[in-house]
Amino acid sequence: MRRFGHGLVLGKFYPPHAGHHHLVRTAQERCERLTVLVCAASVESVPLADRVAWMREAHPGAEVVGAVDDIPVDLNDPAVWEAHMAVFREAVAGPVDAVFTSEAYGAELARRFGAEEVCVDPGRSRFPVSGTAVRADPVACWDFLGPAVRAALTRRVVVLGAESTGTTTLSRALAAHYRQRGGVWAGTRWVAEYGRRYSEEKLAAARAADPAATWADISFASHEFPVIARRQDAEEERAARRGSPVLVCDTDSFATGIWHERYTGGRSEEVEKTAALTPRHLYLLTDDADVPFEDDGLRDGPHLRPWMTGRFREELERTGRRFLVVRGSREERLAAAVAAVDALLAEGWDFADPLPETR
Fold first, then answer.
1. What is the spatial order of strands in the sheet that 282-286 belongs to?
2. Nearest Cα to Cα of residue 173 among 348, 290, 281, 326
3. Of 56, 197, 228, 310, which sees the most CB atoms within 10 A?
4. How many other β-carbons are positioned within 10 Å of the β-carbon of residue 173?
């Protein structure tokens, strides 16, 4: 099988899927050097920078570059072709020996680069998926998506609330509900509250020094909360990369900011900046009014619960986050949560259409 010096793979990767990755891997096996050119139009709703980052992560051995290409697509117009080629040549360094493609326009693209066309699985029999199919129904194509794209598309649901208001109970039950649906949903993941683990370790350390130590002896400093927030987000991101189209989290870094306020009396700009880095799609706030307080050795008492519930609600409203207050029995809360998540998923992903092609 002939090998090439410099190969080229070109595409929108809107978004990348298993077929794209197969194409790139095939080209890498046959080239000393491979350039992957990601072309994005301004009308498209996934930023070029994200697509470039996703492809670089998936193919560290390739040179992945990006270009904005807002030129209309007319495969029958030589002038339009040449305008596109000017964008391509500007982005791709050096002469190209081979163009690897699964598209019908591959022969003309190779000719204009003065390169050999290498056609890879044009019928998409190896991976029966396309960018158009992914944009139309990401859930149906989920198994063809890589970790970074899954993390970007996952609908993130956060259950938050005051102490002993059932956040862990509800979040676990919600994740289990979606896993029981089977299929792609069987991979639905649940993210535990890292602050809880941090608190347990803090109390254990205090008891190692003084076996009589209790939760009342524990204090928190402001610098601890950014650590908790970053760790919470990291665990959430890991789960999103491996899970189903929905991820259920028992709290998040946004909630960590409210806990900072509770323990230090003020807000943390660092925690709030961390929370702003990751979009969440739905918050479920567990009301304190109809849940009896249970002291598990890491809680301060029922007197703080109404204040905490109020602060969560105020900040959710102030920051414009989508949320629902859940009340009632466990069964009623789970039913309300499932209805809210199903409504979120029913809205779809709303990818903008790429530029139309004239063939």
1. 189-191, 246-250, 155-161, 282-286, 323-326
2. 326
3. 228
4. 19
